[in-house]
Amino acid sequence: MTLSMNVILAVCLGGLALLSLVASPRVRTVEGFFLGADDAGKAPGLWTLVLSQVTTWIFARSLLNAALLGYAFGIAGALGYTAYYLSFLTGGLIVDRLRFARGYPNIQTFMRDEYGAFGVTTYNILIGLRLVSEVFANLLVVGLIFGTAGSTGYYLSIAFVTAITLVYSLLGGLRASLRTDVVQMLLFLAMLAVIMTVVWLKPDFSTAAIVSSSPNLASPGWVLLAVALLQVISYPMHDPVMMDRGWLADRKTSFMSFVHAFWLSALCILAFGFVGVYAGLHKISGEAMMQTFERLFDRNTLVLINVALLVSAMSTLDSALASAAKLAVVDMKAAQPTLANGRIAMTAFTIAGLLLLLTGSKDLFAAVAISGTAAMFLTPVVIFRLFANIKAPLWSYKLSFAIAFAGALFYFLESSGYTKIVSGAFGPMHSYTVLLWINLLIFAGSCLAYGVGAFTFKSQAAR
Hints:
The protein is mainly alpha-helical.
């Protein structure tokens, strides 16, 4: 008797859950739970941080996005999404300036010192939404692997992954996340190597065809690449999972972990994008990506692809929960830094992510585009204040915030079809083109607001 795909995947998921539980330590100290230190108080080493950084950013949503964008737009789509991983380089520089050059214990303290209660509140809201969206998106991918939205398999798989991940996260906090990230990442790399070998050995695979798969420079994939290059300046600053790991080790180890995480994660994402490009070159009109995969690949390869997505989903979930606990208890100081309060925060963010699933949204890239656009209000903060050491008044920050959030809201309304202002004024336009124009306007407007504010601030100080 041939086992069904869902039965095989369920067995693999059970094995992955058991492996994660075994690898996860039970933490009894606040330092271990919130800061990832071992029982002796020692910070994590370089490659623990690197593998943790990579696996927390190569989440299930990212893998699917890279494949889907490659499938739809060729090499340009794959490169466009890969460009977001330049965030590791800008993130490493931001951490170095904040933590080591200026001595800040976290980004919240910097935002409070520079922009008061308004600054730290707006920042916390942004990263809180980011964490909830990560819980939502990865659980959504897990559910869709096992069935259509609303099916029994969909809900059972989500419930199982949520329960297992929450259990070992509650027991081990950030220390458990780091430990399981290493195991999960090594497992993912092995599976990715097999998947890529299968694709490369296909008789109809052609590197030349992949490289030349986006000849039209007006392709939405190239437009997305331009959007990513605009957003990576500020994107890492609104990702607490990435930033949290920059405060765990010494200066050299911390910075090099970001550098190594960049090239390793970029290669992994680009590789998965190549799988999507290959499938897109051989698709039949009207065929969805997963249907093309089922036609092109054998059963074993399909199992590997789906298990790779499950591994990525679990690794990102535990990291998001660990960051949620640190955000609420340590950074926001919403409660005393105890293990119990950290676990309450984890549970609350899990429930919020599950509730978001009830909205019925299935657009996996939308959350990246919208949150990245909203985070553009941090771009002038990074450029002017952190890198150029130019100070500006609070009104500049408020105006930048208003411009960025208005732009993000406008893109959400336009891309979701609630409004048709752009098409009514300029005719039909791809949503990524709309996104690029919005981001260009936000970049120009927020930098102008900060620049004018800095000039007036300097003039007043000189009097």
